[in-house]
Amino acid sequence: MSGPSVADRVCTLRADFDRSFAEPARTLGAASVELLAIGVGGRPYALRLSQASGVHPDRPVTALPTPVPALLGVAGFAGTVVPVYDLAALLGHPIPERPRWLVLTTGSPPLALAFHQLDHHMQVPITDVVEGSIGDAGPHAYLKGLVRLPDGNRPIVDVPATRALVHQLAGHQPVPEESS
Amino acid sequence: MGRDPLRYFRLEARELVDQISAGVLDLDQRPGPEPVGRLLRAAHTLKGAARVVKQKEIADFAHAFEEILVPYRSGDAPLASEEMRELLRLNDEISAQVVQMEAPQAAEPAPAPAPAPVSESAPSPPPERKTDEPAEIPAPTRASTSDLDELLDAIGEANAQMTPLRDGCGTIERLHRAAEALSDQLRTGTPGAVRAAAVRLAGELGTAGRRFTDAVDQIERELDDVRGKAEGLRLVPAGSIFTTLRRAVRDAADAEGRKVRFESRGGDIRMGVHLLGPVSGAFLHVVRNAVVHGIEPEAQRLGAGKPAEGTITLEVERRGRFAIFRCLDDGRGFDLDALRRTARERGLLGPGTAGDQEMVDLVMHGGISTTTKVTEVSGRGIGMDAVREVAAQLHGEVRVRSTPGEGATVELIIPLTLLSMTGLIVEAGGSSATVPLDAVRGCLRLSAAEAATAASSGRILYDGSAAPFLPLAEVLYTGDTVPDAAGTGAAIVVDCSAGMFAIGVDRLLGTSALVARPLPELAPASAVISSVSVEADGRPRLVLDPEGLAAAVLRGHGPGARSASASTAEPLPVLVVDDSLTTRMLERSILESAGYEVQLAASGEEGLEKARGGGFGLILSDIDMPGIDGFTLVERIRADPKLSTTPCVLVSSRASAADRDRGKAVGADAYVVKGEFDQEDLLAHIRRLVVRS
Q: What SUPFAM superfamilies does this protein's entry cite (chain B) (predicted)?
């Protein structure tokens, strides 16, 4: 290790530091997107953090006798009773294992989706997200885009589309069918 | 806040006025020294309190009120009707004064609409308000001071529990300093001294930690209590509207020259203030109508063999998630002939003969009244319009029944959003649920043998008769693996409009006061669930619906004895997959005699192909088959998005735990061993699993 190289490093660090002030502040979402890498029924998926309003592990779910198989039951969130749907069942590959994680979705009425595994939280450049629907029928309709990650590509679960499916399963029609 | 000298007087005066209003009506119905004494005490207290806060008018009215009553303090002589009227008038004056005293606060922001002047010179009973205004809604409902006191006490208690925490903060500060000193010592001190200091610090930290835990536990309990009490404040007893209605009956009877007694039931049922207000407004019309149109003059009643005094009964009842308000009278019923005539005159009715119920329905749609003259207090079908409006507003419905000569019933059924009740908490099949205690007739402890008999016969002996019986675990089954529970240990006998029945539970966990709320929008549930309550730990607990349970239990007893859960929908066909002809035929006969449609497949391959054709409510498969075996079949079904939710039951002679585990791993919903093959057991699995159309 010689003296000049340390001085060079110091210079570089200082320049970096100064430049960080000169650059415009980066806004979240513009150049990058926040995602949760999750495991659903043993398969890798991603979820946009902006479409979630909370992630909770091991929250007790009260099972509900119901005609809708994907409805696991109800859970309490700050005094509100929220229905919990099994994301794996909604995506068409249910497994017997109980999901451990709940994500509270944005939008109303309240809805929580359950998944099995939280792999990690990440912020990826928007360029790593390939937009576009994957297929247009079946479970694939609830996937929108794909994120390229070092550990492989993950389809992104589209929460609004999934919510629409839940509304349909629950017989909840926010848009009245009056075109008869 | 503290500058309002009338703050407490308002609260007290309101309660006293309520007592006086109810007391006057009691006295009217049942003279005697006891109601007189009570009224005197209330009036006297009011007089004293009013003098203290310089409310001279209220004090004077209260004094005049006392003066009338004093002569009747002893003896059973009833008051003269003039005196009774005067008491009612004074009662109204006092109420008006008290209301007025509260008005300025509410009316302050707007240029106050001149407070209704209370006519001092009213010579006769105060005229009824115009009945043409159905919007005349009294505000009878508010939390009582005792409820508020209890809440304040609970908050105070929770506050007091903060002290140990506050002290604890000091302790933490001290321990922090000790830890810093210890880190200094680590550099300079002798190892022995340092160790001693560290041990001491660890001990003190442990003690502080325990104190914190205790304090937090305590606060948690107190806050839970506060939450319960505050939730309760949103609900008021239905009886709080009775006095207003009773007074309306009294006034209408007085104006019509009838004798009417008022009875009420179900006043303890608590519900939201927002419901009681409109209901009270509408029922004012209903009870007035009942007096004016229903109750006959005395002579006519006696002639018809009825007691001279008419009776109007107001009943409040809770049925599942609905509240029912019912007004019954023992009068003449609707005058259907007069209704028919009026309807014809107005062109509301065709030339054909309208049935009785059709006429009653016509009344429901408004525009017809049976009274021949427009009386002061009622008429023009306004009553029914008001009830209908309220029903629409509260998403309820109205039912009217009339028996000529015997009386009429008007029933308003409204769904409840929040409901306070006492629940019996039970555990069955590893989960707990609440049964509304008011529907519970009794509890029986069952030995293992009794439980087995009850389950196989579907009946249980209670009070000399055999009540239909069904284990609750079967009703509540949700597809979860049920932990090894002790099995049915008690039966709860429930009574509802469909009759008496019993449900089997593993054990009773106790009773608890709770506030039930509707299930969330996106959670469609079986009819056995009426609502949900939130426990202290934030976890939802299901509240069972006695009527829904009854339907489930009785359905289990119907011909074909079908599923207890889900709905009345028909089960989809069952696919039986087995390479043995004997087994196929045996299973088919069992299933068909239980009312299921059955299709057969002789191999795993055939089974998979048939399953893919769709439409099965359940697949029942053998394990050992040539080619695709049962495990593989279930695995393939689970992997197919279209079939993945179809329930699968494996039937095999393999009894080992490893095989059961494997069955579970591939996704089978149940595993039945052929060796211990029990027809009932198999059917129970199928009943709870099968998908219905």
A: ATPase domain of HSP90 chaperone/DNA topoisomerase II/histidine kinase, CheW-like, CheY-like, Histidine-containing phosphotransfer domain, HPT domain
A-chain residues within 8 Å CB-CB of B478? 63-66, 73
pLDDT in the model for residue B82: 86
Tens of pLDDT, residues B368-419: 555 544 443 344 455 677 788 888 888 888 888 888 888 889 899 988 777 7
Number of H helices, E strands in chain A: 3, 12
Q: Which helix (H) or strand (E) holds B288?
A: helix B273-289
CA distance A77 to chain B (A): 7
Residue B252 shares a structural domain with residue B326: yes
- What single letter denotes the amino acid at residue B360? V
Distance CA B512, CA B489 (A): 20
Q: Is B693 on the interface with A (CB under 8 A)?
A: no
Task: Tell whether B542 and B682 lie within a shared domain.
Answer: no
- Domain coverage including residue B592: 574-689
* Cβ–Cβ below 8 Å for B534 and A89: no
* Domain assignment of residue B142, yes or no: no
Please name the member of B480, B645, B692 whose beta carbon is closest to the beta carbon of A63: B480
Backbone angles phi, psi at B337, to 5 degrees: -65, -45
Kindly identify which residue of chain A lies nearest to residue B528, measuring between CA atoms. A65
Complex ipTM value: 0.77
Q: Closest Cα partner for B386 from B297, B476, B283, B292? A: B283
CB B21 within 8 A of CB B95: yes
Is there a single domain that holds both residue B676 and residue B623? yes
Q: 10 Å Cβ neighbour count for B256?
A: 19
Q: What is the CATH number of the domain that holds B528?
A: 2.30.30.40
Q: Which CATH number applies to A39-169: 3.40.50.150, 1.10.760.10, 2.40.50.180, 3.30.1510.10?
A: 2.40.50.180
pLDDT digits (tens, 9 = 90+) for B25-82: 888 888 888 888 888 888 888 888 888 788 888 989 999 998 888 888 877 788 888 8
Cα distance from B2 to chain A (closest Cα, Å)? 33
Rounded distance between C-alpha atoms, residue B352 and residue B456, angstroms: 56
Q: Terminal CA-to-CA distance of chain A, rounded, Å?
A: 82
pLDDT of residue B152 exceeding 70, the answer is yes
Query: Are A81 and B520 an interchain contact pair (Cβ–Cβ within 8 Å)?
Result: yes
Q: What residue of A is the nearest CA neighbor of B568? A: A67
The confidence score (pLDDT) of residue A27 equals: 53
| Within-domain flag for B84 | yes
User: How many domains are there within chain B?
Assistant: 5
Mean pLDDT along residues B10-29: 85
Using an 8 Å Cβ cutoff, are B515 and B605 in contact?
no
Residue A116 C-beta-side C-alpha neighbours within 13 Å: 16
Most B CBs within 10 Å: which of A64, A84, A113, as the mutation test of the B interface?
A: A64
> Other CB atoms closer than 10 Å to residue B462's CB: what's the count?
18
CA-derived radius of gyration, chain A: 21
Separation of alpha carbons A169 and A151, rounded Å: 34
Residues of A in contact with B540 (CB under 8 A): 62, 74-76, 81
pTM listed for this prediction: 0.53
3-class SS at B71?
helix
Does any CB of chain B come closer than 8 Å to the CB of residue A94?
yes
Strands (E), A23-70: 32-40, 43-48, 52-57, 62-63
Are residues B426 and B397 both part of a single domain?
no
